[in-house]
Amino acid sequence: MLKDLIAISIANSGVFMTTAISTVVFDVGNVLIEWDPEHLYRDLIPDAAERQFFLSEICSMDWNLQQDLGRSWSEAVSSLSSQHPEHAELIAAYSSRWHDMVPGEIQGSVEVLEALKTADVPLYAITNFSSEKFAEAQDRFPFLKTSFKDIIVSAEERFLKPDLRIYEALFARNAITPSECVFIDDSEKNVAGARDAGMAALHFTGADKLRQDLREMGLPV
Fold first, then answer.
1. For burial by CB atoms within 10 Å, which of 2, 3, 52, 112 has the most?
2. Is 155 within 8 Å of 67 (Cβ atoms)?
3. Is residue 81 within 8 Å of 88, Cβ to Cβ?
4. Contact indicator for 99, 92 with CB cutoff of 8 Å
5. pLDDT, tens only, 122-133
């Protein structure tokens, strides 16, 4: 049973709220499934300094985020390869071997998700993700298809967390009251964005801590 009233101190907001948390909103990458380009490029670029240069200056996070904003992977690879033809094969691997960056689900987190689903807690997700790769991830990890009432994918909305509009898309599309939600993300800036949008929010650092925090909110995990 959910507690009727749960006191939640919203960190960094200076506001103390008393509300009933009835809905849980998950991030996906590095909360439910692991993602790290190092898993692939440690094999492709054994030298650590060369690898760091490639992942920071060639296939950078800013470049990757453009796919999370809706750019196609074919366009991304083609454009970057034309700029850096000497790295064309390594650039292509970022897309063609994307699954090598994703070694698997984060087991403890998925167990928490399954416990909440079993208890009929309404579940949603907001994720910065390319549409193409998210469809592939859903095929590989069926719980991404079956666990959530709705999933807000950044590439489809053309907004990235922590833009306030991506959280508001979830509320508007599903008639959700923000103060009744807790949002879980591994990025502190995305957690702060969720709080600005009116949700309680937890910075994910591990499944055991997540389970403890949700229990303290009265959620059945």
1. 112
2. yes
3. yes
4. no
5. 999 999 999 999
Q: Say what the pTM is.
A: 0.89
Distance (Å, rounded) from C-alpha 36 to C-alpha 129? 13
Cα–Cα dist 212/198, whole Å: 22
| pLDDT at 16 exceeding the cut of 50 | no
Question: SS3 for the chain, per residue?
Answer: CCCCCEEEEECCCCEEEEECCCEEEECCECCCECCCCHHHHHHHCCCHHHHHHHHHHHCCHHHHHHHHCCCCHHHHHHHHHHHCHHHHHHHHHHHHCHHHHCCCECHHHHHHHHHHHHCCCCEEEEECCCHHHHHHHHHHCCHHHHCCCEEEEHHHHCCCCCCHHHHHHHHHHHCCCHHHEEEEECCHHHHHHHHHCCCEEEECCCHHHHHHHHHHCCCCC
pLDDT of 10 over the 70 cut:
no
State the burial class of residue 211 (Cβ atoms within 10 Å of its Cβ: 0-12, 13-18, 19+): middle
Residue in the structure block whose two tokens are 């690898």? 51
Tokens of 172: 């508007």
Q: 């991830």: which residue's tokens?
A: 137
Over the stretch 62-95, which tens digit does the pLDDT of each residue have?
A: 999 999 999 999 999 999 999 999 999 999 999 9
The amino acid present at 123, given as its one-letter code, is L
Mean pLDDT, the chain, integer:
92
Which pLDDT tens digit goes with each residue over 25-68? 999 999 999 999 999 999 999 999 999 999 999 999 999 999 99
